[in-house]
Amino acid sequence: MLRGFYTAASGMITQQRQQEALSNNIANANTPGYKADQTSIRAFPEMLLSEMGSSKNIPTSQGGLNLPVQNTIGSINTGVYVQETVPNFKQGDTRETGISTDLAIVNGMLPDETGSLFFTVQNDAGETRFTRNGNFTVDGQGFLVTNHGYYVLDEAGNPIQTNGMEFRLTPEGILQTEEQATPLGITYTTDANTLTKEGNDLFAGETEPIPAGTTYAIQQGFLEQSNVNTLQTMTDMMTAYRMFETNQRVLRAYDESLGKTVSEIGRIG
Fold this sequence. Notes:
- By secondary structure, the chain is of the alpha+beta class.
- It is 24% helix and 33% strand.
- The chain has two domains: 1-55 and 75-88, no CATH class; 91-224, no CATH class.
- It has two helices and 19 strands.
- A hairpin with a 6-residue loop joins strand 2 and strand 3 (65-76).
């Protein structure tokens, strides 16, 4: 009985974590470049149940011999858990904003199915991070920054000086002003799932130079939208809630059975 109690409890915890991930996706449905989180649910190892202690009488010349036997009953599942949460790096739709500092990476031909392109930025600690959110602006010193104030980096890993908001960006990612032309720091990873998702639309991990044969375009005045499917996410949230309720009812039934065991059977004894 206690095993079933813990199995139902693990199901409730799993659906709660699933609901948290889905709620976070809904909250970021309008965040540019946001990549929806997906949960991977796995079952704990199954156990094989056997009946122990029974015996079998084998006739012998001295009368008979009782030997212990083990009868296999079957397997039992011990519950489920959330193994990991990974982002879905599918390209989001682009939306025209008409704002010159809004930039969007439009994937073309990528050499790897799991590969992805990113803007390179610098966080508050001076560390290099990556983002798909091109909702940029220009700070008081004329540097191109993210909407959280992080410097957008060029190809050499330096902050980009725009000398104001008047600049033009080529589809190849060259930021052009009256004084200079600066290549944006666009980087590539063969497997985006190896990156770690941080707050403020940032990813951490190892990337590499863009491989030969990769095609993409940078659109100025556009933003990549979140790839969250709101209708599907709402449906998944309702499913998770119903599953949580089901496990809750099972848990309540086990609790009532344990209560009867303690009060009624104990009183009879």
